């Protein structure tokens, strides 16, 4: 009798190659950000020179600050709205326009960003809104709340509804049951959703380009215009800093979910 | 509605805020795109007047409708530039999606066959690059692919080539960039269906004498079709509208529709034509979505 080995050499090779393909370029970028040489490709020894250059580049710092503020505010609003949307969809009795609602929530996930950006710009122009911090924040909220909704909804879907029902049988009204039973259980997903929204906003170039005004460029817009002019070692340093920031965010997110899941386990026997 | 009744239907109550937001900032903007795509270039030149002046009443509305014109759509069909841009976008998206499937499937399959504990680790490893900025990841490839970049240095050192190969500003660079950026979107749905599949099935098939390629082609692949569909859709649609990757890696000899839109909007400032192009793009993209939905429905019916 022949048995299909569950993990063949081919499986391991394709996995290893795939992960190398995903990680090597980023690793190379990080290493070269510490390169002392002005030429991006010639290794001139370790140095923090390009980090120094970045911290003296006022325009870049301003763009980074703008990006950070937009990311924090849009992620926060998006998490609120996205969580509400997820609750409405997964705990929903049927309501009028439910199909339209879920359609609107899924469409931005796949829609080309050029279209989303263009349509929002036309709206803001028609409303005569001054373009800058708030228009970018609104645009990013619209995009990222859909991601939050998906993340939270999948957690809600895997949750045992009888917990909520038990709370209501014991006299909680639905809102109270949600706040004291469901919310703590989906908290990890909400944290993950916020983090995802934050990084997506920090990352976005296309929608930000359409919805921002003169003088309020975000970091990706700045990086993009620099990269188009040619490779500069300073960009390596900025990119490494962004990667580090996102790594910190991921670690916090995973710690948060680990913490709450272990709390859930210890609470379960009681 | 009294507060009590609202709280008795918490789901409806929860839907209000996100619903209003999405209508305001997702649905309504498309009305503006549609309106501007239907207006003439001369009167739609930025800066704009408000499009619908509701205070002016019916007459103004009638006048607005009278001013609608489909000239922009006619231009799109008659101008080779746009026709080629759409065709190129579709070609690039189809090619990239096929490449993504070829690269992503073995990885997803390998993941699904790992021991449970390692599957979670592998999944995190695949998702993490998706969290790092895609602009940065494209930039990382510029570092590698440029004239005196790492790839050419390695090729030269191994004496595989005698002089540096031009990678940047070529289609191969663009395909590398696209496959690299979209790979997690292809792997995750594939992995999700492959991991659910019982390995016992494959073992049974092979016990009954099927060679490995037959096991894969007659059993594994057909069973993973839902994942293939989701992955293809998740990659294909955004790639059609892709702007940044071709702009940074492919050079400017032939533009995709995303780039053409961008240029029309920011350089030529011809907003009506750009809006019309966006609407055509949207319609083109709705077709695969509807097709996918229909396929899924049929699969559900067959499943019963």
From TrEMBL, chain A:
Residues 64-256 form the ABC transmembrane type-1 domain. Keywords: Cell membrane, Membrane, Transmembrane, Transmembrane helix, Transport. Belongs to the binding-protein-dependent transport system permease family. CysTW subfamily. The chain crosses the membrane at residues 12-34, 70-89, 101-127, 133-156, 177-197, 235-256. It comes from the Bacteria. It is found in: Cell membrane. The keyword Membrane applies. This is Putrescine transport system permease protein. It is a multi-pass membrane protein. The keyword Transmembrane applies.
